[in-house]
Design goal:
By secondary structure, the protein is an all-alpha fold. The chain has helices spanning 3-24, 27-49, 55-64, 73-89, 91-115, 126-140, 146-162, 167-181; strands at 119-121, 124-125.
């Protein structure tokens, strides 16, 4: 499995598993979970940036992170965004935000790498962005009304393609804001 496929598989699983955990555990447990994830992310980043080389940890981070990037930056952004969304919008909106992030980013990246021929913005392709939006819509439509799922998928796709802010940080928040603006209630 090449590095990007592994990285996007981790990304997808983190979105789906994070969502499942947040909607199945008690609120206090969810907040503790997010705090622990954030703490571990910062601790691992600190260990690696100080030059310590823990073999199993180095292999995992090397496979899950892009070369030349700050180690654990994406995971930390994910945990911060999930924590903010959870405290501001609650577990269901946050779960939808994490699923949106996991599906949209993974699909758009992998499809964009494989078949993307038309550049949309920077390294984002039209093919990747559209496929991410379509699959995200299809999955979200199982959990929220179809028109809301479509709106969320399109807004998240545009945010993912054009935002200068880390997608792990901004997609869950954008999703929660769209859900709130649509007056979607659980």
């Amino acid at each position: 499995m090449n590095d990007e496929v592994f990285r996007q598989t981790v990304h997808f699983l983190m979105g789906v598993l994070g969502a499942a955990i947040l909607i199945t555990v008690q609120p206090r447990t969810a907040l503790i979970f997010l705090g622990v994830v954030l703490f571990i992310g910062f601790a691992v980043q600190d260990i690696l940036t100080r030059g310590y080389r823990i073999p199993a940890l180095v292999v995992l981070v090397d496979e899950a992170e892009r070369r030349g990037k700050v180690p654990m930056k994406g995971g930390i952004a994910y945990a911060i965004s999930a924590l903010l969304c959870y405290t501001a919008f609650g577990p269901f909106y946050t779960a939808i935000g994490l699923v949106t992030l996991g599906v949209l980013d993974s699909v758009s990246t992998l499809v964009g790498i494989r078949v993307g021929k038309h550049t949309l913005y920077r390294k984002k392709s039209v093919e990747g962005t559209l496929s991410g939006i379509i699959l995200t819509f299809a999955i979200l439509a199982f959990f929220i009304p179809p028109w809301t799922a479509l709106f969320v998928a399109v807004v998240a796709g545009v945010v993912e393609a054009f935002s200068p802010i880390d997608d792990n940080l901004i997609i869950p928040l954008a999703t929660c804001i769209v859900l709130a603006l649509c007056c979607f209630t659980v």
